[in-house]
Amino acid sequence: MELIKDLGEHELLRRLRKYCHPNLVGDDGAVFKVSEGMELVVSSDMLVENVHFSDRTTPPYMVGWRSVAANLSDLAAMGAYPLGITVALSLSPQTPWDWLESLYQGMKDCLDRFDTFIIGGDLTGGKVSAITEWRCAIAITALGEVKANQKILRNTAQTGDVIVTTGNHGLSRAGLEILLYPEKYQDLQENIKQKLILAHQKPQPRLDVIPRLHPYAPITGMDSSDGLADAIIQICQQSNKGARIYLDKIAPCAEILHITDDATALKWTLFGGEDFELVLCLSPEKAEKLIKGDRPLIKRIGEITEEKPIILIDNSNPDSEVLLDSNEIFNHF
Amino acid sequence: MELIKDLGEHELLRRLRKYCHPNLVGDDGAVFKVSEGMELVVSSDMLVENVHFSDRTTPPYMVGWRSVAANLSDLAAMGAYPLGITVALSLSPQTPWDWLESLYQGMKDCLDRFDTFIIGGDLTGGKVSAITEWRCAIAITALGEVKANQKILRNTAQTGDVIVTTGNHGLSRAGLEILLYPEKYQDLQENIKQKLILAHQKPQPRLDVIPRLHPYAPITGMDSSDGLADAIIQICQQSNKGARIYLDKIAPCAEILHITDDATALKWTLFGGEDFELVLCLSPEKAEKLIKGDRPLIKRIGEITEEKPIILIDNSNPDSEVLLDSNEIFNHF
C-alpha cells in the first residue's frame, strides 16, 4: 500500500493536480475574475475526522463529496453561483494514497456536477505544509458570485412572508442511522435503504433552484445544513420575527417512517441536519407563483409572524401549541 | 481559567465578533465587492500546532500575527492588495479563552497594519463546527485584488532579467534559534536578540513594496516564505531558466553572524525561510530604476540565464561554482 509519506511532496502534488482546474499553476495564489456587476461570496468550513465524519459511516469518496456539497450549499444559501473552491489539508503521513485519491475523486465529482473546480489551496503553494501525525482535517473555502439584488440574506424576513422549503428533510439523518446500525436494518427494502444512505452520503446542494428564484428577488433564507428547525430559528432571530409552522406540512417522508417511530421521525425531520435544502421566505404572491412553477420540489410550510415565538401548529389537535426555541429545541420531543 | 468548552458556542462567537469586520453578519457566506477591472487573488493555508508552530517558541499572539502575515505575503507575492481573510479553526475544548483571545488579537493587529479584516470563516456560519479533542489547526484563506497587468507570476522570467530581493534573509531562522536555545544566547546583546526574535515572531509581509512596483509591471517573482533559495529555484523552474547568484550580494546580516559561524549563517540566509520578503525579476533598465528609488530596501542579487543550472558565484574565489538544486539544496553546505 502506498502511503503519503512515501510518495514525496512533488509526486503527491503532481497526482493531485489532475483534480484541480487545468489552468492552475503553482503560484502563491490563484487568480480569477468575478463577473462584472457581481458581488463575491465567500464561505469557509473546516471538517475534522471523527468530528464531522468518520471512516465508519463515510468512505473517503463520500467525505470528499459531502465536504464540497456543504460548501456549495452555503453559496446556494446566499443565492450565489460557484466560482470555485480552495482546499487545504492536514493529513497523517500514514494516510494511504488510495484514501486521498478517493477523497479528491469525491470532491471532483461533486464539483463537476455543478461545473466548478478546485482553484487553489495549500497544494498550489508548492508544499503540502500541513502533514501531521494526526487525523485528517479538510479546510474548504467556497467562492461564488451573485448579483447584489439577488442575494439571499437571513435577516430580511417580513411579517406575513410565506416560508417555503425545497425537497425533504430528515433523509440524511435516517441514512446515517442505517449506516450506524446496519444489522438493525438488514431486512429493510433495498431501494429505501439506498435512497436514505445516498441522501446521507451524496447530498445535493440546491444550486439547481437558484436561477428559478431570480424573478422573485429579493428573497430571505438560508440552507438547512444544521436542520430545518435551525434554519427557521436563525431566520426568525436575525429578522427579529416569529413564525407559525404547520406540522402536517413538515410531516416526515414515508421512507423515514419505514425505519423509525413517528416521534423520532419528526425529530429527525426537524433537527437531523445535512439535507442541504433551502428554507426561504417571500411574499404570499411571490410564494404562490414560485410553488406553482416548482411543485412538488418547493412547498409551503408556514409563515413569518410579528410575534417572536416560533409555534408548531398541529391541525389535528388545535389546542396543542409546541414552541420551537433555540435553547431547547431538543427538549420538545 | 475560562475554557472554550465552558463558554458555549453563542458566547464564543459573540466574543470573537469584535475581531472581525464590523459589517460581518451571521450569514452562510460573506459578501463583498471586487473593484472594477480588478482580478481576484485567493490563497489558502493550514497551520497545525506542533507542525507549523509550537507554544515553546511562539505565544498565541505571535501565532495569530504570523499566520496572517504568511497569507498576506502570498497576496504581496502576486502583486495583490488584501480584501480580507477568512478563518476556520479547529480547537481543543480544553483551550483557554485567553489563548484564543491572544490568537485573534495577533491576527487583528497584523490585519490592522494593512487596513484589512477578518471577513468570514467557520465562525460566521453560526457554529464553531470544528472543536476537537486535538491540537489547534488554523485554516486561513486570504482574498486580494490585482490589476491584470500588475500580476506577479513565477513563470515569466526572461533571460537577462535582473534578480532583486527586498530586505534581508535568514533573520527569522536566527530568531527561531534564539527561542529554541535561550540559554545559549543569554549573553547576546539585547537589541540584536530582540531584532532577531521579532523577525521570527512578527514578520512583515511586503505589501508596502507593491505600489512601488507598478511602474515596472509586468514583474516576475514570488515571496521567500520557504527560503530565498526556494524562491530562486521555483522561479527558474517555472520559467524554464537558470540563474547566476552572487554570494557577496546575499552575504548574511551582521546580526546573524553574531550568533553563528559563517557557513551556518549562509545556510540560514539561503534556506531559513519565513522572512516573507519578495524575490523579483525584471529587465536591467527597470531593475536599475527600481533599486535607485528604493535603496537599500531592494538590492540586486543576480540574473536570470538561459542555461538551466543555478550557480552561486563567489567573486573572491572565481574557480568555485556551487550549484543550487531543488533536490540537493541542503547538501551543498
UniProtKB/TrEMBL annotation, chains A, B:
Mg(2+) 4 binds at residues 28, 43, 74. It catalyses: thiamine phosphate + ATP = thiamine diphosphate + ADP. This is Thiamine-monophosphate kinase. Residues 159-312 form the PurM-like C-terminal domain. Mg(2+) 1 binds at residues 44-45, 122. CDD domains: ThiL. The keyword Metal-binding applies. GO terms for molecular function: thiamine-phosphate kinase activity. InterPro entries: PurM-like_C_dom (IPR010918), PurM-like_C_sf (IPR036676), PurM-like_N (IPR016188), PurM-like_N_sf (IPR036921), ThiL-like (IPR006283). Reaction mechanism of ThiL seems to utilize a direct, inline transfer of the gamma-phosphate of ATP to TMP rather than a phosphorylated enzyme intermediate. Substrate binds at residues 52, 274, 330. Transmembrane segments: none annotated. Pathway: Cofactor biosynthesis; thiamine diphosphate biosynthesis; thiamine diphosphate from thiamine phosphate: step 1/1. NCBIfam families: thiL (TIGR01379). The gene is thiL. Pfam families: AIRS, AIRS_C. Mg(2+) 3 binds at residues 28, 74, 223. Mg(2+) 2 binds at residues 45, 74. Residues 26-146 form the PurM-like N-terminal domain. Its EC number is 2.7.4.16.
